[in-house]
Each structure stands twice: as structure tokens, then as C-alpha cells.
């Protein structure tokens, strides 16, 4: 089954075409790297998939459902790590998850999620004392609430040191092994190549490549 299907998606802001007749298919179980420089249209595309932005033209479907018609229902099945999201300094790791669980009306066990991202040892510490990598793993745990079938991660490793980025990729791999489809957006090839089955390269709203890492490398 297809996890994400974009059919001629266009988003126009005044005279700027942020996304330009984009066609894209992501299969269930894939880890897809969505690569492109800043301003290429990655966030706009993600926001269209999540039905936060209405496309000027085209159709987006997730698990066969129209994003514009079933946005709210679809968001229940999608875990999102937004770009540049920050933790709340005054809340503990556990409180972050309790908040996320309540917001999504899910019934996950906070401790189990904290274990999955390797911050269970700091569950009752305030996030102000977390390293950057721990904070990002906590945010990733929040995205895992509700056992999503699709994870959309917008620049999840940006700003982390190599070790911190590696830990995030390891968690992505483990979640993928549980059957979760992953959409990994980044402006750095090196961040996605170790974990993605396939990479699409977006430039000025257009897909200029869509292939496996091996094939992309041999064509460079
Ligand atoms: P990114 O790092 O993805 O490029 P941006 O800084 O472009 O993020 O965008 C951050 C937010 O601001 C997004 O929600 C985007 O839709 C919005 N945004 C970006 N550019 C503009 C703009 N020129 N006018 C209004 N909103 C914008
Ligand atoms: P990326 O995520 O790849 O950095 P974005 O999708 O954030 O790219 O932005 C693509 C282009 O659309 C940029 O030129 C950005 O400034 C513009 N843009 C994004 N959101 C808005 C908005 N709400 N209003 C006007 N322009 C926007």
C-alpha cells in the first residue's frame, strides 16, 4: 500500500511557486529522505500532507485518504517532529510525554516511550538539564505517541553533533523495523543517506531526483 501519494501538488504564494506540480509516492515501510536546500519547499510540502496548508492545485493522499478531506483523522495516524521545536525547560521528560499523550488522547506508557529513545534515566529531571541530543530524543518520543503508522521528521538531526545525530538515526531505524513508514526531511545529504532507502531531491519546488542512495551516488 502507498503511505504518501502526491499528485501534481502546487502551492503558490503570490508570484512565488513554493511547490511546483510535485508528484511523489512513498510506500508503506519505507524510510524516505526528502532532501533540498532551505527554501526548496520541504516544509510547505509537509504542511500540505498534514493539511495545515491548502495546495493551490493537486491532491495529497496518506494511506489512501485525501489529506484535505480527512486531515484530522489522518493526523491521528501521523507522528510529527516539527522543525526547530523546543522542549519546555520547566517540565520533566515524563511531563512532556504526559502532555503529548493527553493531547493525542492516546494511552501510551510514558516510561516505555522514554526507554525507546534512551532518556528513561532522566525521566524525572527537568528538560533544562538535558543535552541537545537528549532534548531532541524527547521530542522524537513525543512524535511516537499514539503508535503512528507514519513518522514525519522535519530536520530531526539539524544542530546535533555527529553522535547525537547517529542516535536519532538509530531510533528511526528501530521504529522503521516496527513497521513505521518514515519521511525524513533535511538539507544535508549526509544526514539522511545512512538511514534512508530512497531519497528525493527538491529544488525550487520541483523534484529533480528520486532514487536509491546507491544510484544517486553513482550519478553524481
Ligand atoms: P524553513 O527552515 O523550512 O525554510 P522557513 O523559515 O522558511 O522555514 O518558514 C518557517 C515558517 O514561516 C513556515 O511555517 C513557513 O510557512 C512560514 N514562512 C516562510 N516564509 C514565509 C514568508 N515569506 N511569508 C510568510 N510566511 C513564511
Ligand atoms: P523549506 O522547508 O525547503 O526550507 P519552505 O517550504 O519553508 O522551504 O519554503 C519554500 C518557499 O516558500 C520559500 O521561498 C518560503 O519563503 C516560501 N514560503 C513558505 N511559506 C510561506 C508563506 N506562508 N507565505 C509566503 N511564502 C512562503
TrEMBL record:
Record keyword Repeat present: no
Q: Which domain of life is it from?
A: Archaea
Please provide the record's keywords in A-Z order.
ATP-binding, Nucleotide-binding, Transport
What residues does the ABC transporter domain cover?
4-220
In alphabetical order, the GO MF annotations are: ATP binding; ATP hydrolysis activity
What's this protein's family per the entry?
Belongs to the ABC transporter superfamily.
What is the name of the protein in this document?
A: ATP-binding cassette domain-containing protein
The organism of origin for this protein: Halovenus carboxidivorans
Query: Which start and end residues of the full protein are shown?
Result: 1 to 220 of 308
